[in-house]
Amino acid sequence: MSGHAQVALELDDIQRGVLSPRPTPYAASYLVFRIDDRAHGRELMRRASAVATSAAGSPSPLGETWVSVAVTYHGLKALGVPHESLGTFAWEFRQGMAARAKALGDVGESRSENWEAPLGTADVHVVFAAVAPDAEKLEAAIDRARTAYHRLPGITAIWRQDCRALPTETEHFGYRDGVSHPAVEGSGIAGSNQLEKPLKAGEFVLGYPDELGGVQTPRPEVLGRNGGYAVFRKLHQRVAAFRRYLKDNATSREDEELLAAKIMGRWRSGAPLALSPQHDDPALGADPHRRNTFLYSRDDPAGFTTPGGCHIRRANPRDAVVAGEVRLHRMIRRGAVYGPPLADSVMEDDGVDRGLMFSFIGAHLGRQFEFVQSEWLNDGVFFGSGNTKDPIAGAHEGHTDFIIPRRPVRRRLPPLPRFVVTRGGEYCFLPGLSALRWLGDLQD
């Protein structure tokens, strides 16, 4: 499937946000704009082409700092992209995330009618994302981005979400975050799993051969090539409920941590059960060269060490025997924490909004993000486990339990409540820098 020759990526035309893992620690901001005047929208694109950071060479004078510029389908329409060109984009992108909510498991409390305004509406046109190693560099990046929309009265800022790494370098449930990143051929960026062959560039960047040898790109080529699709989701985390579930079903503090590891597939330090099955290993969890280098099929095919239904094995089954070809469903995933941490040992919700801004990058919305979300996270058929769901991110309604394979008798936990609630999201297109200029030069 991956036998075709490697191609050279045009890194100077690809936005850095398509290929690069975020820095650790980090600070980030998402800014959303509505285009009220087409001419000003096109001027925004022209300016954005000078603000967006390319994937070539050093990201910026500020170090591991960059600005990404994304456009929704409604944004492309507001810019006046011709109808015949709009029709060449992925149909999921054209529908938008809100319309795809049921298929994604955004039901009940997570349904789009409950989303935070204006997410999921036709008002969301352009998304700027700024990422930096610290708050000072982030503000410098935002100041630079401000030059793109400053004094354009036809551009209205309608939403902003600020994110900051917690002092613990974990997400709100207490797990080390930002552990996994696939290698992409031609990117020059090493993957976090040294046992995984680099994926074809066309899995993430439009206009290049993918794992099947096909080339996907919207038309005209100047618009589609070197772009990618980005999925942004605001996910509220119910930290107190998660803590109570662990405590209520554990026999001791040590057992509580083991349950947390079995649910995630990693100890909270980031050490994987696959490499440290009996106890946590913080040194392993802190080592980016070792903590993600493992497979499943040889040493743990039945999931006695890393349960088949745990979060990391569902999100990326690696070499495990499952229905489908795993490499066709790989994505670049990034999470950024928002909101203050819930104080240690607090078991009741304090009413504060906290969670993750999650982003997924790929060239195939349907067989990457949507497939993983619907078939791997919200179903268990692919590994022979019926209608079970991801214990962390699944769309639970208190009906499905969690099974931990164990000899001689498996361990069955009570039905899981919903720990993560979708507060909104968007399907976006990350144009190449040439495409941003092309959008800026559109004429009616």
TrEMBL record:
Coiled-coil regions listed:
none
Q: Where is this region: Disordered?
A: 274-300
Write out the entry's keywords from A to Z.
Iron, Metal-binding, Oxidoreductase, Peroxidase
What GO CC annotations are associated with the protein? Answer: cytosol
Q: Which InterPro entries match?
A: Dimeric_a/b-barrel (IPR011008), DyP_N (IPR049509), Dyp_peroxidase (IPR006314)
Q: Name one GO molecular function term.
A: peroxidase activity
Q: Which domain of life is it from?
A: Bacteria
Q: Which residues form the DyP dimeric alpha+beta barrel domain?
A: 62-148
Q: Compositional bias (Basic and acidic residues) at which positions?
A: 278-290
Give the cofactors, semicolon-separated: heme b
Q: Does the keyword Amino-acid biosynthesis apply?
A: no
Family membership, please give it: Belongs to the DyP-type peroxidase family.
Q: What is this protein called?
A: Dyp-type peroxidase family
Which organism is this protein's natural source? Saccharopolyspora shandongensis
Q: Source organism lineage? A: Bacteria, Bacillati, Actinomycetota, Actinomycetes, Pseudonocardiales
